[in-house]
Design brief:
heterodimer; A: 87 residues; mainly alpha; 0% strand; B: 1265 residues; 64 helices; Splicing_factor_3B_subunit_5 (chain A); Splicing factor subunit (chain A); SF3b5/RDS3-10 (chain A); nucleus (chain B)
Chain lengths: 87, 1265
């Protein structure tokens, strides 16, 4: 944090951001960001009932099944993380 | 004043209705249907008339809150040029030293010794501890020894006294009683904090060793005897304390019981320094101390740590003994001697050098070779053999033969303190003894690793203690990081003595305590051997008068107990529990309570139980019970789960044979009950009987403590029991009503209050059984003289009134309003005020009413003291609660007021005027409008008043009258009144300004049409000056008044005045002007103001342009949705401002954009907003905090107005930018976007392609039905 940030609202903002899992930082890589995006998306699908209903009709599944699937997919939405190049 | 508000609200309501009817006709109002008038209601539409909101925080006021969100540098807003009131102490800064504000009791902390390290049984495991380390057994043994010694001394003293008494008794019998041992003042536990314990004990033993006079005494060799401050004491701790001499020393008349100081002195007297010379004391401790590696310079700097010991004459002063010829360098190394001391030492040595016995060689050289004969010494001559005596006889045992040129040493300091090498901070003289070694420019390479480490620690500590904030910070960090490397021993041996330094200041102590805290955290279990040392230093913080010091102390002890563990803490503190010094026991009890709160009460319960049942000493029981009390005080309602066990642990103390134990038990029960309230009565079942029995058998302090406990337990009971027990205790209470003891009085009052307020106690019972005695004993003049009694009595009486009603109480005291003692009258008045304000006056019958008004008038007229508010408030409260019933008395009251308005004394005039403002509302209720009009005229005539305080009150009274009777009925008519107010606006007195602007604002708001426009313009110019006022309330009222005036006479002229004012230099003035412009624009619709305002932006002057931008910002904040009509008009201006070179332009414009965006969200102005966003966006890389804040907020505003998706698209370009600095900024924006609109982003995220093993795409989003 810069010296100028210490006394203004930004310092609180960073604290706030630290509380949100989905927030990012300058060193975030493609995979991590994509995981966040996927999880947010699934959370959003599950949270909006009309969307669930829509997906249910499109996939010919029950809404409960859809919800369950989405929740399961949240575990590893993008598969295993790739090997880090610099390690 | 409370009842003014509904009145005003009603008037406002009527007015609003009328306005709405007129809306279509009035060019200045806007069509509410079209623009939605709802949001305008949120603004303050009139100037507050009540006085009590003037000092409220910015956040409490609607407008101010909105302003606060923008005007970032609050420090500047608040930074007003202050008057000369605090110049008085310039150059005479009060001493900051902690020691200067400590009372004798607290000073006893300096008597404590930083004990040597103790054995850590956890670390050493099974093996037997090395004999050189102190184990728990050692400490306990030592403690026992001290107790024994104490006991012996007491017995000896008693015997002597008995003998004396017997002697005296032969002549006169009564003297025996007088010779009784001085009774120690019983310490009421809490009262130590509030200073009742400050009374110094006169006994010599209790005098702290550290009385500053003695500290300063320079111990010089050869003057030992003279330097001895108290010969009597010295004798005792001399080299050979034969029993006979012990008795001698007790002949000192003041040899009292508490030798708080003694043991400390004794222990250290036995330091091995003297061991070679002095006959060793046949004490057990000695052998142990021999082992202590007490090389002064390094391990424990005793001279500093325990100055009491080092400078007590019992020990031969350091400088002379160890060093034969203290070369300056060596002295520096020792570090314990200040330059003055050193000079004195050198001078002494010089004298002694000349006076020393001549040697044979010298005699040979002096005398001629012939004519003299050298004789043999007589056979009987024996040279002195006793080394100690020799030492005293010739203080320089290894004295140099002749003058020797001292070795040149650059490290020596002369008069001027040398600058510390290597960028170390300045050292104060008193720091030399701790940090002196740092001044030697020895080669660091030559030092042993240990010494280097010491050096390093010292340097860091010095930086923490005296350095600049950055120095401090880095040093603190280094100390923390390297704590384990340095080791616990070296660290604490350096830090703790510093904390015992007598010249320590608050700030320094805070910093050092912080160091300990950090280091503790790192060292963890390594601190175990040092726990007691640390406690000795930290415990005094727990009873410090400074709240923050107490909190700090608690935190350290809590961390310490977490690091060291319960077993170690108990082992370290157990010996102190029955220490003979009450101070030690008190602080230990407090420390234990902190340990309990840190490690949980259950962990400590078994130990506490054992301590409270200690058979060995009452002190242990006392301390144990006190720990329970402190726990209750410290953790409050969290005791509830353990309440029963805590009560069980201490309950037997109520029947203890020692009176002090009984007292503290009762006090602990009180604390527990207070902490547990309103729950937990079942836990106290077992103590009810002993308590209630106890109050019948005890007297004095114990009884007071028992009553206190009962007072706190009764409110926990069910109604039925409470009533029963109250009746039981009331007999005693009523008996004690007559007690002359102040402490008892306070407790009795408090208990009565607690009993009376309990549910089950019937009004009839109070009325018949308590009230007569209560009033007889307590409602006497003497009670009004002591502040605390006064308050307690008022509170208790008010509580009774809540039960028995107004009439009973007021009826009893109303006659006393005419008492001849003024303080007593004031107490009566305050009680009546509170009772009547609480319960109203419906209980008061006609007769009482008459008496009351009569008494109040008398008391009001007879008051002479300066503290007039009580009478005024009382008068106001009574008149307001009587309401209509006061009508018959109003002429009389007004007559009094009028007469007093004409009084010679300014104070009286002021009170009279103040009284008008308090009763104005009631006068209106009584329809005494004519009377009010008359008063208005009278007040008007007194507007020439020269005392500003009085003038302020007169204006306030006028304001109150205008408020209630309205503009049209006001006499004198507004058109006469206002011109008279214009010159008063020039008055710089705060009270006058405030009342005047309120009155003017009121008139501008409600009755502007009565005054010609030219008069309003004149007022406008005066108002500009008002913007300079220090008080925020005045500035706020002024700014609002601009709005009313503009509404009344049209915005053009007012605006021109305000725009001109933007050119002034003063920032505060400009800020207020911009607010005024925005308010004018809001009240008169923006289109009347915007053209002129935007035109003003063309003036090539920073201040003006910024002022315009700021006005725009406020304007858009105030007008909200209405902004959609003006956004296109101002966009070019904002474009220009957002591209300006000046940072402030861009900052202010950005905040204008923010308000604009928030106002027009969802109203279809996206095109303009996107356009503006394009200008705002390049500013995201600004580093100035205000600018970047404004820019970020503008972007947030855009998120709301444009939707998160658009802003996300702006963001995407930089999230994975190759430059880290860029990425950081973009992620920051992304994060706030994410927090603000997480869900909305889902639809807008970019499409990512899958990679070999990873699926990044979101196929669900492409599903289509």
């Amino acid at each position: 944090m810069q010296a100028s940030d210490r006394f203004n609202i930004n310092s609180q903002l960073e604290h706030l951001q630290a509380k949100y899992v989905g927030t990012g930082h300058a060193d975030l890589n493609r995979f991590e960001w994509a995981v966040n995006i996927q999880r947010d998306s699934y959370a959003s699908y599950v949270g909006h009932y009309p969307l669930l209903a829509y997906f249910g009709i499109a996939e010919n599944e029950s809404i409960g099944r859809e919800r369950y699937n989405f929740m399961q997919k949240m575990l590893l939405p993008c598969g295993l993380p790739p090997e880090r190049e610099d390690d | 004043m409370a009842s003014v508000d509904p009145e005003i609200a009603k008037t406002q309501e009527e007015r609003r209705k009328m306005e709405q009817q007129l809306a279509s006709l009035n060019s200045l109002t806007f069509d509410t249907d079209l623009y939605g008038g709802t949001d305008k209601d949120a603004y303050v539409s009139s100037i507050p008339v009540t006085d009590d909101d003037e000092n409220l925080d910015a956040m409490d006021n609607e407008v101010a809150r909105k302003l606060a969100s923008y005007t970032a540098p609050k420090s500047l807003m608040k930074e007003m040029p202050r008057g000369g009131d605090d110049d008085g102490d310039l150059g005479f800064k009060k001493s900051q030293k902690i020691i200067d504000r400590e009372d004798p009791y607290r000073l006893r902390r300096l008597n404590r010794v930083i004990s040597p390290d103790r054995n850590d049984p956890f670390a050493s495991g099974e093996k037997t501890p090395d004999p050189s380390v102190r184990t728990y057994a050692d400490v306990m043994r030592e403690q026992a020894l001290k107790r024994e010694e104490e006991e012996t001394l007491r017995l000896i003293k008693k015997k002597k006294e008995e003998e004396e008494a017997a002697k005296a008794g032969a002549e006169k019998v009564e003297t025996g009683g007088a010779a009784a041992p001085q009774k120690r003042r019983n310490r009421w536990d809490q009262s130590q904090d509030d200073g009742t314990a400050k009374k110094a004990k006169t006994s010599d033993w209790d005098l702290p060793d550290s009385s500053s006079g003695r500290w300063d005494a320079t111990p010089t060799p050869g003057r030992l005897g003279d330097a001895t401050p108290g010969v009597g004491r010295r004798n005792r701790w001399d080299e050979t304390p034969t029993p006979g001499r012990l008795v001698d020393s007790d002949a000192t008349p003041a040899g009292a019981v508490t030798p708080g100081a003694t043991p400390a002195g004794m222990t250290w007297d036995a330091t091995p320094k003297l061991s070679g010379i002095a006959t060793p004391t046949p004490k057990k401790q000695r052998s142990r101390w021999d082992e202590t590696p007490a090389t002064m310079g390094s391990a424990t700097p005793m001279a500093g740590a325990t100055p009491a010991a080092a400078y007590t004459p019992g020990v031969t002063p350091v400088g002379a003994v160890e060093l034969a010829t203290p070369t300056p360098g060596a002295i520096n190394m020792r570090g314990s001697i200040t330059p003055e001391q050193y000079n004195l030492l050198r001078w002494e040595k010089d004298i002694e050098e000349r006076n020393r016995p001549l040697s044979d060689e010298e005699l040979d050289a002096m005398f001629p070779q012939e004519g003299y004969k050298i004789l043999d010494p007589p056979a009987s001559y024996v040279p002195i053999r006793t080394p100690a005596r020799k030492l005293l006889a010739t203080p320089t045992p290894m004295g140099t033969p002749l003058y020797a040129i001292p070795e040149e040493n650059r490290g020596q300091q002369f008069d001027v303190p040398r600058e510390a090498p290597g960028g170390l901070p300045f050292m104060k003289p008193e720091d030399y003894q701790y940090f002196g070694a740092l001044l030697n420019e020895d080669d660091e390479e030559e030092l042993s690793p240990d010494e280097q480490k010491e050096r390093k620690i010292m340097k860091l500590l010095l930086k923490v203690k005296n350095g600049t904030p950055p120095q401090r910070k880095t040093a603190l960090r280094q100390l923390t990081d390297k704590a384990r490397e340095f080791g616990a021993g070296p660290l604490f041996n350096r830090i703790l003595p510093l904390l015992m330094q007598p010249t320590l200041e608050d700030q320094e102590r805070h910093l050092l305590v912080k160091v300990i805290d950090r280091v503790l955290y790192k060292l963890d279990e390594l601190v175990r051997p040092y726990v007691h040392k640390i406690l000795v230093v930290i415990e005094p913080l727990l009873i410090d008068e400074d709240y923050y010091a107490r909190v700090e102390g608690r935190e350290i002890i809590s961390n310490l107990s977490k690091a060291a563990g319960l077993a170690t803490m108990i082992a370290a503190m157990r010996p102190d529990i029955d220490n003979i010094d009450e101070y030690v026991r008190n602080t230990t009890a407090r420390a234990f309570s902190v340990v309990a709160s840190a490690l949980g009460i259950p962990a400590l319960l078994p130990f506490l139980k054992a301590v409270c049942q200690s058979k060995k000493s009452w002190q242990a029981r006392h301390t144990g019970i006190k720990i329970v009390q402190q726990i209750a005080i410290l953790i409050g309602c969290a005791v509830l789960p353990h309440l029963r066990s805590l009560v069980e642990i201490i309950e037997h103390g109520l029947n203890d044979e020692n009176q002090k134990v009984r007292t503290i038990t009762a006090l602990s029960l009180a604390a527990l009950a207070e902490a547990a309230a309103p729950y937990g009565i079942e836990s106290f079942d077992s103590v009810l009987k002993p308590l209630w029995k106890g109050i019948r058998s005890h007297r004095g302090k114990v009884l007071a403590a028992f009553l206190k406990a009962i007072g706190f337990i009764i409110p926990l009971m069910d109604a039925l029991y409470a009533s029963y027990y109250t009746k039981e205790v009331m007999v005693i209470l009523i008996r004690e009503f007559q007690s002359p003891d102040e402490e008892m009085k306070k407790i009795v009052l408090k208990v009565v209050k607690q009993c009376v307020s309990t549910e089950g106690v019937e009004a009839d019972y109070i009325r018949n059984d308590i009230l007569p005695e209560f009033f007889k004993n307590f409602w006497v003049r003497r009670m009004a003289l002591d502040r605390r009694n006064y308050r307690q009595l008022v509170e208790t009486t008010v509580e009774m009134a809540n039960k028995v009603g107004v009439a009973d109480i007021v009826g009893r005291i109303v006659e006393d309003l005419k008492d001849e003692s003024e303080p007593y009258r004031r107490m009566v008045m305050e009680t009546i005020e509170k009772v009547v304000a609480n319960l109203g006056a419906s209980d008061i019958d006609a007769r009482l009413e008459e008496l009351l008004i009569d008494g109040i008038l008398y008391a009001f007229q007879e008051q002479t003291s300066d503290d007039a508010n009580v009478m005024l408030n009382g008068f106001g409260a009574v008149v307001n609660s009587l309401g209509l019933r006061v009508k018959p008395y109003l002429p009389q009251i007004c007559g009094t007021i009028k007469w007093r308005l004409n009084n010679k004394s300014a104070k009286v005039r002021q009170q009279a005027a103040d009284l008008i403002s308090r009763i104005a509302v009631v006068m209106k209720q009584c329809q005494e409008e004519q009377l009010m009009g008359h008063l208005g005229v009278v007040l008007y005539e007194y507007l020439g008043e020269e005392y500003p305080e009085v003038l302020g009150s007169i204006l306030g009274a006028l304001k109150a009258i205008v408020n209630v009777i309205g503009m049209t009925k006001m006499t004198p008519p507004i058109k006469d009144l206002l011109p008279r107010l214009t010159p008063i606006l020039k008055n710089r007195h705060e009270k006058v300004q405030e009342n005047c602007i309120d009155l003017v604002g009121r008139i501008a708001d409600r009755g502007a049409e009565f005054v010609p426009a030219r008069e309003w313009m004149r007022i406008c110019f005066e108002l500009l000056e008002m913007l300079k006022a220090h008080k925020k309330g005045i500035r706020r009222a002024t700014v609002n008044t601009f709005g009313y005036i503009a509404k009344a006479i049209g915005p053009q002229d007012v605006l021109a005045t305000l725009l001109n004012n933007l050119k002034v230099q003063e920032r505060q003035n400009r800020v207020c002007t911009t607010v005024a412009i925005a308010i004018v624009a809001e009240t008169c619709s923006p289109f009347t103001v915007l053209p002129a305002l935007m035109n003003e932006y063309r003036v090539p002057e920073l201040n003006v342009q910024n002022g315009v931008l700021k006005s725009l910002s406020f304007l858009f904040e105030y007008i909200g949705e209405m902004g959609k009509d003006y956004i296109y008009a101002v966009t070019p201006l904002l474009e220009d401002a957002l591209m300006d070179r000046d940072l402030v332009h861009r900052q202010t414009a950005a905040s204008a954009v923010k308000h604009m965006a928030l106002g027009v969200a969802g109203l279809g102005c996206e095109d303009a907003l996107v356009h503006l966003l394009n200008y705002v966006w390049p500013n995201i890389f600004e580093t100035s905090p205000h600018v970047i804040n404004a820019v970020m907020e503008a972007i947030e505003g855009m998120r709301v107005a444009l939707g998160a998706a658009i802003v996300l698209n702006y963001c995407l370009q930089g999230l994975f930018h190759p430059a880290r600095k860029v990425r950081e900024v973009y992620w920051k924006i992304y994060n706030s976007l994410y927090i603000g609109a997480q869900d909305a982003l889902v639809a807008a995220y970019p499409v990512l392609d899958d990679e070999q093993n990873n699926i990044y795409s979101r196929p669900e989003l492409v599903m289509f039905l």
